[in-house]
């Protein structure tokens, strides 16, 4: 076995996110890697509402069209990310021409128009949509987003209904991070039950896999896989990466930008990742892939959030200019040692 897609054939799709610059165009080495390793792709940024509808009624499908054409040309399972998300939504979405907050009715119409235009454009081509992204907080309460504040929790079911109407065959997902936390797990279970009790289609839960070297525990992540699958939906591991960098434990703000010592503390591995960290990192990836394989009957896709370490958003968050090592391929496009082990486990 020489690739991830071979390793998991017949088990689950293995995907990657492609960034806004649509890396295959400017980067033949990345193009080769993407084609040889992955059989599913998702656009990291270019299908967010801010990019697709920067002004009301003025759609910009240029990057999204290229992404879809690339996926089709390479026979990949295409994921759309994301229809309704509080972040990266254009500011006009929530305001009228006087700059005041729109009414519930207007916001619902805008949701309907956006979802209908986007989903119908790629009907039958994009196979699954992250319909709603990140609507629940760590403690399980609703995120007080504009969507929630103006419409109420009903915005979730409306989004799923609009998406289903635009492409009845598309799979529809709810996607969120830190899904191993008990609060979020329980609320997502409630959400699935609620949608199902109303006859609204939900196909899978996307568990974003933004992990670190010590969070979350594999067992907590597993509990969530089991809890979601028990509700009769598939589970997808979306947005996987494992940061090796320390998390800031104080308020990041202007003072940080100018604080050299803090920057150094937050970016300790500019010259390379120390061996001990590398070992923990490799074990972490392996442990999680073993977990996914254990539950391959419940999991339909695992997607990593970028191709090489150089592409990862982790290098720019929570401040730009960090050097992270979060993905499976290094900055020279080489598979990290753990990839060979993943091949072996995947195909055994
Ligand atoms: O394209 C502009 C560029 O022209 C400009 O010079 C530069 C200066 O800041 O910004 C560039 O846009 C950035 C974009 O990524 C492309 O690199 C945005 O500022 C930046 O906010 C954006 O970050 C993305 C983030 O979502 C916010 O949309 C990350 O790439 C992307 O990895 C991240 O992905 C999210 C998922 O969608 C949802 N789950 C969490 C995940 C990680 O935050």
Strands ordered across the widest β-sheet: 1-2-3-4-5-6-7-8
Q: How would the global form be characterised? A: globular
Tally the structural domains: 1
CA radius of gyration is 20 Å
Roughly what is the average pLDDT, rounded to an integer? 95
| Low-pLDDT residue spans | none
N-to-C SSE string, H for helix and E for strand: HEHEHHEHEHHEHEHEHHHEH
- How would a textbook summarize the main sheet? 8 strands, parallel, barrel
The overall strand count is 8
**CATH homologous group name:** Glycosidases
Determine the strand fraction and express it as a percent band.
15-25%
The CA-CA distance between the termini, in Å, is 10 Å
User: Helical region count?
Assistant: 13
Helix content: 25-40%
Indicate the CATH class: Alpha Beta
Sheet/helix structural class: alpha/beta
CATH architecture verdict: Alpha-Beta Barrel
* Named CATH topology: TIM Barrel
User: What small molecules does this complex bind?
Assistant: ligand G3I
Pfam families: Glyco_hydro_10
Protein name: Beta-xylanase
Catalytic activity: Endohydrolysis of (1->4)-beta-D-xylosidic linkages in xylans
EC number: 3.2.1.8
